[in-house]
Design brief:
This protein has 1 helix and 18 strands. With 245 residues, the chain is mainly β. The strands form 2 sheets. The chain has a 9-stranded antiparallel beta sheet. The protein starts with a helix and ends with a strand.
């Protein structure tokens, strides 16, 4: 192989490995609490999984949903570039990009933007990634034994982000900039049993605190998710891995 080609290949591999190493510092779930304008304590949860992120705020006491935003992220030179696919509090920001400064240390994850520093975020990851860790898109349902597939490469999406300990689903439309709903909290996935503990739910605060148990199977490469919804309805969903293109 030509020496220049070898050098170019090595530099490319170094760049890729450096990027993955940097992202590895952020992967997982982070949390912080801050006092809101009315004195109420607000909990914020920040998830990084693969190339995707979500940032959600809700009442620490009641779980009442406040806002969520998220999409795709990239990193470089101590900067975190966020590109929004959904933004519940301000739909005009869908498609926009923001740059944050970031650093990590013994006190956790530090973020700042335009000179305003957020208090340190503490890691919520207490275990290794599970079989379900990653980013998924709703790809179909099974009803009465019949499978109906759903196109995933379209503006209208239902996406689920999972770290090793936390999950969040978000329904949104990048074309119309609509935010359609979200819910999330902590989860476990062991021996085919998937358990969600709801900490926020934008459509119905009364469901906060519910624990939902499901069966899951990923043998086919897809996630077959069966059980009963938070409304008590039987369900069999099919989720497919989302890969950033």
């Amino acid at each position: 192989m030509n020496p220049k080609t070898i050098l170019s290949t090595l530099l490319l591999l170094l760049a890729i490995s450096t990027s993955l190493l940097a992202k590895g510092n952020l992967q997982g779930a982070w949390s912080r609490s801050a006092q809101g304008q009315n004195g109420e304590m607000i909990k914020e949860v920040l998830l990084f999984s693969g190339d995707f992120f979500s940032w959600t705020a809700f009442s620490e006491k009641t779980g009442a949903f406040i806002e969520t935003r998220g999409g795709i992220f990239s990193m470089g030179n101590g900067q975190l570039l966020l590109k929004y696919e959904f933004y519940s509090a301000d739909s005009t920001k869908v498609g926009a990009e923001e740059t944050w400064e970031w650093s990590s240390g013994q006190n956790g994850l530090n973020l700042s933007k335009d000179g305003v520093k957020k208090e340190a975020w503490k890691s919520l990851e207490e275990s290794q990634p599970t079989d379900l860790s990653g980013v998924w898109l709703m790809g179909g349902r099974v009803r009465n034994g019949e499978t109906t597939r759903r196109e995933v490469n379209v503006p209208r999406k239902t996406m689920k982000i999972l770290t090793g300990t936390r999950f969040q689903w978000i329904a949104y439309n990048t074309e119309t900039r609509q935010f359609l709903g979200t819910g999330g909290g902590s989860y476990t996935a062991v021996n085919g049993k998937y358990v969600e503990n709801l900490e926020f739910f934008s459509r119905d605060n009364q469901r906060v605190g519910m624990q939902l148990e499901f069966s899951f199977d990923t043998a086919s490469g897809e996630w077959h998710h069966t059980g009963k919804s938070s409304a008590g309805e039987a369900m069999h969903e099919i989720w497919v891995r989302r890969v950033q293109q």
